[in-house]
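Example record for the data management plan.
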Amino acid sequence: MTQGPAPRPLSDEALSNLLGKQQFGTLATVKRSGHPHLTTMLYSWEAETRIVRFSTTADRIKVGHLRRDPRASLHVQGGDVWSFAVAEGDAEVSEITTVPGDAVGRELLGMIPQAAKPEDEDAFLEQLVAERRVVIRLRVDRLYGTALDIKG
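Corresponding structural encoding:
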């Protein structure tokens, strides 16, 4: 029996690039029991500041978890099933956006790629208030991940 190739650790730059190419990942927060709570999330990666941003509503379980214990991780699949990146750090939850166009609402608007910006920005900002939206900011202090070089 021959052994296949070993996983190859990805450089910090390669991990950052992988995070920047993807839009969805699995956010892990810590339940009161200590077990992980996992949820698939749309995210925005800011490589320069090493911050991952997520939009969610104030009533979500993950918000309560992060307010109690800020430790979190984001797992992102690479371009194939053999590669991944994980961003770890402490997260903070913003205040709820309460006035259309307030700082939190503008931050949420800024997370949307230019090509997907809403046509009616005012209506969008009002919707964010109605939904009681918040921003989760994961301040990344560790990136890790691997790739497995398999010829297909």
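Summary line stored alongside the record: The beta strands are 8-9, 24-30, 36-42, 44-46, 51-57, 71-77, 84-93, 133-144, 146-147.
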